[in-house]
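Hi, here's the filled form for the chain we discussed.

Project: internal
Contact: R.S.
Residues: 266
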Amino acid sequence: MRGAVLGDPIAHSLSPRLYAAGAGISDFSKIKISAGELADFLEKAGTKWDGFAVTMPLKREAFNCADMADDLAQKVQVVNTLICQPLGKSRMFIGFNTDIGGIVNAITEIAPGRSYKKALILGSGATASSALAALAQLKVAEIEVCARRLAGPGTVFATAHNLGVSLSTHLLAAAPEHIQDTDLLISTLPAGVADEIAAQLAGTDLTGKFLLDVAYDPYPSRLVAAWQAAGGSVIPGKLMLLHQAILQMRLFTGKDPDVEQMRQVL
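And the returned structure, exactly as it came back:
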């Protein structure tokens, strides 16, 4: 099989090592594709690829580029997996979202059976939309979003409408005052963007509260370090990466990957 992970930046991606360890796929590369370039790349890709993992900032573009998408991907309008289906001399791309299941499974691994009354999402982009769908699956009663952009197409707010989920919204600068009232925080912000929020957590008590920071490089982030220093529990971003990759590899290969080998890589 031949595949690749697409995104920008991409040098830090662990996907090729995970695919080698979990599914024995050695021909899995990293390709830098910047925003706005995905459609042209896929058009030129032809039939020589079996599929692609898609990361920031391409997950909404991937949805728009997919010839078909599964039901959940259609609701969130976010795709992180493109499977190539040959059609004679042509091909079609089928889109899936394994980030949602990856978030759900990462959270439940760390705190199995735990319920959350209130959750807060930092960010409003593609991964925030997947996080919202995951929280809906976990039946979180109350969900808030803190973001720099609080409206417009291609945001978590359009996803909330598609899912029939109610949201409370605040500007990102107000996040520290809302963290105290939440049971579960999911940061979908790029590395470093939450540093100012982390600095304001000093002296707070976050005992019994959980954080999933999806940015896993570098680790620990300042947000993770501040959360732990305040007594909070952490769900590592690499754990989300692992669980979404497990689901992704099943789509690529039709088989269960070697999860223990993947954990050793991480």
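Let me know if anything looks off before we file it.
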